[in-house]
Design brief:
There is one protein chain. The protein has 172 residues and is an alpha+beta fold. It has three domains: 1-47, no CATH class; 57-105; 107-171, no CATH class. It has eight helices and four strands. α5 packs antiparallel against α6 and α6 (66-81) packs antiparallel against α7. The longest helix has 20 residues, at 84-103. It is elongated. One of its GO terms (biological process) is transmembrane transport. This is Solute carrier family 26 member 6-like. The chain crosses the membrane at residues 12-32, 38-58, 70-101.
Length: 172
């Protein structure tokens, strides 16, 4: 994190940074053995301040993607209150569960036109769009790895008819 903060981007900078860290751990580290654990804990908390401040970004994560926010909350909570290895395992497990659950629910949205352009965007995600022009059903079966289909229907009635004819008839 310090290397990124000062603008280091090359591998040579990484070697120098790792060498300095090695010197500190090997030769200066024994001086820290006499310090009380509360002082060492405060040093660690100050060093991890940037990561702990990511908690303030949680509302933004929740607005962008609730599943990603849930994965973040579970991983952070288990890591802080249980153990790091269990936190990583819980994060991977919840992430796989979210991918599995999202694969069964197709993404649907209402599209509105962006003024003075030919772009149609989701009304809930993009505030600059006008009233809905098309109702769009975005069908994507991620779990079964089928091709993606983008279907545009002028009315809800057409979307229901398409679903009855094409989707429900294949299930029988």
């Amino acid at each position: 994190m310090i290397q990124q903060a000062v603008g280091g981007v090359t591998q040579l900078v990484s070697v120098v940074s790792a060498s300095i860290l090695l010197v500190i751990v090997l030769w200066i580290g024994p001086f820290f053995e006499t310090l009380p654990k509360c002082v060492l804990a405060s040093i660690i908390v100050v060093a991890l301040k940037g990561m702990l401040l990511q908690c303030t970004l949680l509302p933004r994560y929740w607005r962008l993607s609730r599943w990603d926010a849930i994965v973040w909350i579970v991983t952070f909570s288990v890591t802080c209150f249980v153990q790091i290895s269990y936190g990583l395992a819980a994060g991977v497990g919840v992430s796989l569960l979210s991918i599995f659950v999202q694969g069964y629910k197709p993404y649907t949205c209402l599209l509105g036109i962006v003024p003075n352009t030919d772009l149609y965007l989701d009304i809930k995600r993009y505030k600059g769009t006008t009233s809905p022009v098309f109702e769009v059903m975005h069908k994507c079966d991620e779990v079964e790895k089928k091709e993606k289909k983008f279907l545009i229907f002028p009315t809800v009635h057409d979307a229901v008819l398409y679903t009855q004819v094409n989707v429900l008839s294949k299930d029988k």
